[in-house]
């Protein structure tokens, strides 16, 4: 068990030196990589979900980026089966997820996959089994999860999205509809995937690299799947693989319905903000097919997020 802050080099060496457990080399293993920070109770609930999975050919890797609420101690003491990696608080989401992926990739076989997921979700006992079944039937595919709110689990809050790469318009699919309206094998092709439960074959990382932690510190999850799609992989959201999200635990600025003038700086520049201008610039740049589509996407995207803020401006 790794319990002290470590470098990427240390992670790779530790992974190589650690003896494999019985059955660990079986093809089709899923490495569950989850970054955590100061959400001890949510981390505990998530790990309990992992412990109850009917599919057993998996390993869980928790990357704790400097939590001060004894999250790491909880994981070490209550979940000895989990591989715990620790950062010093400077990794943010993208650096933490990459640290976990490097650790997994040093151990993984070519036939294995990595599940990128956050700790503010709950899943049922067949979640990994469902993902594994889908993955073996469509190997060159990144498989995302449909999201419902944990308090309203019958209703879809994120069913995937389609992007117009010229106008930056995002069409959100099936939001507000009942999950029971769709068959057990229903899935939809999408333009991007988030880090809230996406299964990625290890070959994807070997072919296109990891998440871009140079351009994105906190919101780098959308870009890598787009890069994978450009490399010939399919992106889908499966309505059979359901994650129940704690929407209220999200960074408030990203989910609130109204803003004040005092929110301007945080909205456009805070590292945790979805509308952060730096992230929007690099997403347009990194996903553009041509210089013209880059300029068009960026201008429309800035106009869209600005209008979103202005239309919800209520007070000083």
Structural features, described:
This protein folds into two domains: 241 residues, Spore Coat Polysaccharide Biosynthesis Protein SpsA, Chain A, CATH 3.90.550; 64 residues, no CATH class. A hairpin with a 2-residue loop joins strand 6 and strand 7. The chain is an alpha/beta fold and 316 residues long. The protein starts with 7 loop residues before the first helix and ends with a strand. It is globular, with a radius of gyration of 19 Å. The N terminus is likely disordered. It contains eleven helices and 14 strands. Strands 1, 2, 3, 4, 5, 6, 7, 10, 11 and 12 form a ten-stranded mixed sheet that branches.
Summarize this structure briefly.
This protein has 316 residues and is of the alpha/beta class. The protein has 11 helices and 14 strands. The protein folds into 2 domains: 8-248, Spore Coat Polysaccharide Biosynthesis Protein SpsA, Chain A, CATH 3.90.550; 252-315, no CATH class.
Please render the helix and strand layout as text:
Elements: H1 8-17, E1 30-36, H2 40-51, E2 58-65, H3 71-78, E3 83-87, H4 92-105, E4 113-116, E5 121-122, H5 127-137, E6 141-149, E7 152-158, E8 161-163, E9 170-172, E10 187-189, E11 198-201, H6 202-208, H7 223-230, E12 234-245, H8 252-255, E13 259-260, H9 264-269, H10 277-287, H11 291-311, E14 313-315
Parallel strand pairs: 1-2, 1-4, 2-3, 6-12, 13-14
Antiparallel strand pairs: 4-11, 5-12, 6-7, 6-11, 8-9, 10-12
Helix pairs in contact: 1-4, 10-11
């Amino acid at each position: 068990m790794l319990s002290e802050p470590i470098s990427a080099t240390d992670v790779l060496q530790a992974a190589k030196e650690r003896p494999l457990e019985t059955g660990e080399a079986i093809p089709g293993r899923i490495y569950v990589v989850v970054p955590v920070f100061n959400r001890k109770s949510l981390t505990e609930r998530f790990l309990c979900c992992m412990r109850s999975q009917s599919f057993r050919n998996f390993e869980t890797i928790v990357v704790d980026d400097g939590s001060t609420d004894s999250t790491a101690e909880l994981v070490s003491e209550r979940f000895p089966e989990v591989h715990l990696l620790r950062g010093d608080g400077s990794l943010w989401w993208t650096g933490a997820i990459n640290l976990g992926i490097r650790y997994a990739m040093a151990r993984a076989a070519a036939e294995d996959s990595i599940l990128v997921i956050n700790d503010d979700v709950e899943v049922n006992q067949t979640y990994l089994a469902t993902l594994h079944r889908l993955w073996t039937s469509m190997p060159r595919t990144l498989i995302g999860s449909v999201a419902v709110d944990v308090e309203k689990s019958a209703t879809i809050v994120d069913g995937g999205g389609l992007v117009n790469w010229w106008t930056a318009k995002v069409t959100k699919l099936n939001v507000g509809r009942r999950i029971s309206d769709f068959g057990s094998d229903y899935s939809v092709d999408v333009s991007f995937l988030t880090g809230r439960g996406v299964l990625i074959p290890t070959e994807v990382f070997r072919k296109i690299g990891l998440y871009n932690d140079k351009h994105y510190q906190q919101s780098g999850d959308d870009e890598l799947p787009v890069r994978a799609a450009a490399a010939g992989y399919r992106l889908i959201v499966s309505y059979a693989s359901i994650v129940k999200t704690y929407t209220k635990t999200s960074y408030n600025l990203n989910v609130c319905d109204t803003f004040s003038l005092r929110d301007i700086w945080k909205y456009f520049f805070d590292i945790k903000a979805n509308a952060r201008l730096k992230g929007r610039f690099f997403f347009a740049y990194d996903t553009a097919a041509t210089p013209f589509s880059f300029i068009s996407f960026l201008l429309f995207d800035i106009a869209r997020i600005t209008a979103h803020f202005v239309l919800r401006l209520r007070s000083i």
